[in-house]
Amino acid sequence: MKKLFLLGLSGILLTACAPKTAKQTEFMLDTICTITIYEEKNKEKTADELIEEAFELCSGYEDMLSRTIEGSDIYKLNNSGGTPVEVSDDTVEILEAAKRYSELSDGAFDITTAPLSILWDFEGEDPHVPPEDQIQAMTEKIDYTKIKIDGNTVTLEAPVEAIDLGAIAKGYIADRTADYLRENGVTSAYISLGGNLYAIGSNSQEKRPFRLGIQDPKSTDGSIIGYVEVSDKSLVTSGDYQRFFEEDGKRYHHILDPETGYPTDNGLSSVTIVSDKSLDGDALSTACFVLGLDDGMKLINSLDGIEAVFIDSSNEIYLSDGFGKTIEFYDAE
Ligand code: AMP
Ligand code: MG
């Protein structure tokens, strides 16, 4: 018995049916992406034109950062056989951030898990639990310290063979998209790149901060368990319901423990991070999901300006120390 589930979206914008300036949805970055502009002061371009340009920007980043698109920086690195590769400034910035988050999480977050993710093949048509010996062989190719960066020259040294930015790229792209819209006069907008949300300004039509919902990990229709109110912030969720398959009654989700080679099994169902930068939120949501409640919460509480909502498999909710001070969590009505 096996069922395949794909692409649960984990963050939702809660809004009344106010008239919107402009909204467009595209399938991009392996997920459903939506940009909504509520208010802009650009004298030359319409809100629809700005959204189109923003999607072009996202598409350019996808061509640069995708593991599977031929000619991307990551494709070149993964096919370099350990020889040095020249990459863009953006790629260097993401790789440096990825290494930083690997250090901070003691290797729980590691983009060199790529060969293991490829083996598990969660995106494939008919994924199965791989043989144990192959899982163990792939864990030996994981070591973020073997990503060597010298200016714009990057080398993947043995035993590392491949990297995958699936756990961090959408965060970086959400930040660049928000920058682009702001630079072009957008003062109120909402960006959703799958589970990565970014609120620009506050909700101009409802005259209050944006309400960003956190999905109930147990819901099959995307209903929410609670929400936060934010302006100029990102909200990113990693969850065991976003991409998984079932085999013999057990769920196998897409976030892997680099130590064991298996999907993490630490009692967490989701981790949501609220931060100024979506890059931080994306890396940390994955890192904390692997670290588990105790170590993940410790890490979040050691970082300034970053808050987290952990939800365990019984739907218990755990909030980081900043809740009740700088930010509030509201139960779903
Ligand atoms: P996210 O949805 O941001 O938590 O990222 C999950 C994606 O990151 C997976 O689909 C894999 O491509 C990749 N991944 C899986 N496990 C890890 C890990 N421990 N560290 C970094 N990336 C991972
Ligand atoms: Mg992530």
Q: Topology of this protein?
A:
Elements: E1 2-5, E2 11-14, E3 22-28, E4 31-40, H1 47-65, H2 73-78, E5 85-86, H3 89-104, H4 114-120, H5 132-139, E6 147-150, E7 153-156, H6 169-183, E8 186-193, E9 196-200, E10 210-215, E11 224-230, E12 233-239, E13 244-247, E14 250-253, E15 268-275, H7 278-291, H8 293-301, E16 307-312, E17 317-319, E18 329-331
Antiparallel strand pairs: 1-13, 2-10, 3-4, 4-8, 5-7, 6-7, 8-9, 9-12, 10-11, 11-18, 12-15, 13-14, 15-16, 16-17
Word description of this protein:
This protein has helices at 47-65, 73-78, 89-104, 114-120, 132-139, 169-183, 278-291, 293-301; strands at 2-5, 11-14, 22-28, 31-40, 85-86, 147-150, 153-156, 186-193, 196-200, 210-215, 224-230, 233-239, 244-247, 250-253, 268-275, 307-312, 317-319, 329-331. The chain has 8 helices and 18 strands. It has 333 residues and is an alpha+beta fold. The strands form 4 sheets. An 8-stranded antiparallel beta sheet has the order 3-4-8-9-12-15-16-17. A 4-stranded antiparallel beta sheet has the order 2-10-11-18, with no helix packed on it. Strands 1-13-14 form a 3-stranded antiparallel beta sheet, with no helix packed on it. The two termini are 36 Å apart. The protein is globular, with a radius of gyration of 19 Å. 28% of the residues lie in helices and 29% in strands. Helix 6 runs antiparallel to helix 7 (278-291). Bound molecules: adenosine monophosphate and magnesium ion (MG). Adenosine monophosphate binds next to helix 7. Magnesium ion binds at residues 167-168, 238, 282, 285-286.
